[in-house]
Amino acid sequence: MEKQTNKFINIAVQSATIILLLGFAYIFYRKQITISGFVSTLTVKQLPYYVIRSLIRMLAAYLLSLVFSFMYGLLAATSKRREAVMLPILDILQSVPILGFFPAAVYFFVSIAPTKVLGAEFAAIFLIFTSQAWNIAFSVYESISMIPADIYDAYNLFDPEGKLKLFRLYIPATIPKLVYNSILSWTNGWFFLVASEIFAIGTEAFRLPGVGSFIMEAASENRIPLMLLGIITLAIVIIFLDLFVWKPVSQWSRKFTYSVSPGEEETKEVWAVVIIFWEFIGDILRYILKLIRKLNIRPAINFNFIRRIWSKRFGEIVRKAILVLTLAFLAYAFYAIVKSIPALFTKLKFSDLILSIKGICLSFLRILISYLIAVGWTFPFAIYLYNHPRPARFISPIIQILPSIPAIAFFPLILYFLLPIKGGLNIAAIIVILAGMQWYLLFTVYGGLKAIPEDLAEVTESFGLNGKIKLKRLLLPAALPSIMTGTITGLGGAWNALVVAEYAMLNGKVFSVLGIGSLLNTSLATNDQSLFIVSLTIMVAFVYSINHFVYRPLYGKIIERYKVEE
Amino acid sequence: MALLELKNVYQTFPLKDKEIVVLEDVNIETGNGEYVSLVGPSGCGKSTILRIIAGLIKPTSGEVWFKGSKIKGVNPYTSFVFQTFGLLPWLDATENITLGLEAKGVSLKERLRKAFKYIDLVGLEGFEEAYPRELSGGMKQRVGIARALVMEPALLLMDEPFTALDAFTAENLRGEILKIWSSEEISVKAILMVTHNIEEAIFLSDRILIMSSHPGKIINEVHVDLPRPRDRESADFNKLYDKIYSLVVGSAFREVKPVKGN
Hints:
The complex is a heterodimer. Chain A is mainly α. Helix content of chain A is 78%, strand content 1%. Mean pLDDT of chain A is 82; it is low at 261-266. Chain B folds into two domains: 1-77 and 189-262, 3-Layer(aba) Sandwich (Rossmann fold), CATH 3.40.50.300; 84-152 and 166-186, Rossmann fold, CATH 3.40.50. In chain B, the strands form two sheets. Chain B has a six-stranded mixed β-sheet, sandwiched between helices.
């Protein structure tokens, strides 16, 4: 009984979310926006400035994601009623290829921001945010709802009023998964950052200054050394952040886990250089702090004041106000969408539907080819690494970092070489998808193999299982769940890559292959509203169906059968 | 006046279309200076009773009274020791111990003063800043006990406090508990402990309540008048053990129909 109502709520909420998303894209569809031309003639000297612009965008989006996700996850995990509505929404947001909505988002932000440039910045930040927030929100929800019962009980006994609950229980409990997912999100973010910077809206390229636009602009000006410099700089920045920020943070986060399995301990060593670097920074900060204290400036904000006005009743009022505002906004959005439906139907063309279906099939074919190539080489390679620990020790740090360099950054480079060839864009699209997918797949499969419990490995060894039998009886089954995780995430990313990869504009010339991504782009370039809405709807429906009717059931079955219990 | 009174407590929960009765008409009274144990087969609702007294679970019906006043919500006179310790992994031993005081708004200085008293008492010197993951099971439970004592409860509730420990550590810690209990340095006026270890119950308690399962019910009460320290090898100890054993086993098999030819 309860299950059925839950299922009903699930479907209702998810359909409403999809309608809202599509309605949003429809309402804010406008013919092209002319806000290009931020990128002037390129020089090497500008590169640091471009990098900093990109980094600020990333940081703003990440902080936004962090705050949003924590609140969303916490709210969903602490009430059954909220959970029933909030989880299905999150599920949809996570599985829809958000990049398709980017043009609508750009228009929306440009129309509300004081200046066009600022609007474009907001849109880019929002786009990066959408690539980072959902999995973090899920991780927060999971961490809080999976706090062990004894710890939860003990906490409630010793703090019955829950005064310190946020800082002593909820935040610490979420940290390990929060950090792990932040690293994944950060990687996603790079992809979307570069994508948002090289995205072409309409016939005019829409460019914000950043590393991504630097690379793209260099490519379209035929300045290959400059483009390579851009790619290398991006890679260096990413690797630096990984080693100097995420590695130490992830080591610190292990303090907050309930138990540490022995194998985990050594994998994420922090280099001595990094520690020395942060100690040096810490010394500088301490020195500055001392100077400030000498100056005896009082802090601008008195925190006691905030605590005083933040009484329970005040919190209650804020909560109610947020709820009312959300509902009002949703009601208005629904009204606006319903109002525009008649106009929509007069515009829609049947031929667009046929074209979109053709497009989605071709796009899916491209994704499948990339996927098969990726599985074809990563799986044997992961097994090789598992069986040969010595080379693995050198290679595994590399394959941990490689996925975080966004494949899309190589797109201009690939285009430069492949566009002159016949069918070159097709190959370029497949390469970009492959590049986005393969490292992640290798990383997860190898991780899955390494997580095989020592005793199982010893058992197979003691029975003399080798070669094919070992593969069939131990390695393949043990790696299946992680292959599946890698597949779902990899394919999800592939749809976003497609939106960028099937359509390219170099030197004002448009190149495209038939596919759902290029249809979206073409519709914007030719101001074909019907095609835009139809192709976006088809893509969302297709991706959603595949996720819910193919991957999910399959994943459930595989997990049930092959998960190694700890 | 009785310290704790549990009056006509029922606990049920719905399963499919039926109501499962976990506890049926449970009545418990404990007086000053009493060490009471609840013994019964697993799944008889022993831990549920403890959680009801602590105010973690609201009973379906029935009342919890303490020193003549009715308790609603979390019981401020009790403190709890958990079977699996329930320590927050991100707080060190001292921070775990003083969590409840911190929530009450006690100053850091006062918190530390109290913490050190109980750290001494349970034998945690030198481990003040250790995180739970760095502690052995026995040490973790010492933190759990100190955390309960520092709240200065009148009634100490212990839910199988020695079950998650190895035999040697458990024996050691039982001795420590008795030492602390008789030391008069603590505020605790009575202890209510849940266990399925009959020997442990006899060794520690003044009175043993025996429960049956399905539904959970108190079916008998045994007073332990053996002089302390108790000798497990003595004839009286063994006689008592056999008596309680047959009561518990009898309750466990009461509902099982005899099989033919058995």
